[in-house]
Design brief:
With about 120 residues, the chain is mainly α. It has a single domain (about 1-95), classed as Double Stranded RNA Binding Domain (2-Layer Sandwich), CATH 3.30.160. The protein contains 2 helices and 2 strands, in the order E-E-H-H. A two-stranded antiparallel ribbon has the order 1-2. Strand 1 and strand 2 form a beta hairpin. Helix 1 crosses helix 2 (about 50-119).
Length: about 120
């Protein structure tokens, strides 16, 4: 199991993580530290716990918005797939009608040819 030292609001924390996850954890800590830094500039140094709480809420809000967008995009993709399937079904139906029409036309042409040969 790995351990990573991260810095949030100029404070160092040691965090355990799975082997190979160290770089990802550092990236997440930098992201959180960015939010904490922005908040500290806006509301001042109101304590590490409060800044971390506010930053966590901001990240949770971003996550919720992202989930909503993902759900909307997933629904849109499914709608497009259904539309494509419907169009494909229509295309198959049109192809079947066309095949039947060509078959009927061929039968009529053969009858005309037989009639002309008989004359």
């Amino acid at each position: 199991m790995g351990q990573v030292n991260v810095s949030i609001n100029d404070r160092s924390y040691t965090v355990a993580c799975g082997d190979g996850e160290e770089d990802h954890l550092r990236e997440l800590a930098r992201y959180l530290d960015g939010h904490v830094g922005d908040l500290a500039k806006t509301v001042g140094q109101v304590g590490d716990a409060r800044l971390l709480l506010l930053a966590g809420l901001l990240v949770a809000d971003e996550y919720a918005d992202t989930l909503k967008r993902l759900e909307a995009l997933t629904a849109e993709v499914e709608s497009l797939r259904q539309a494509q399937a419907n169009e494909s079904g229509r295309g198959e139906a049109a192809e079947e009608k066309l095949t039947a029409f060509v078959g009927q036309a061929a039968a009529r042409i053969e009858k005309m040819a037989e009639t002309l040969e008989a004359v």
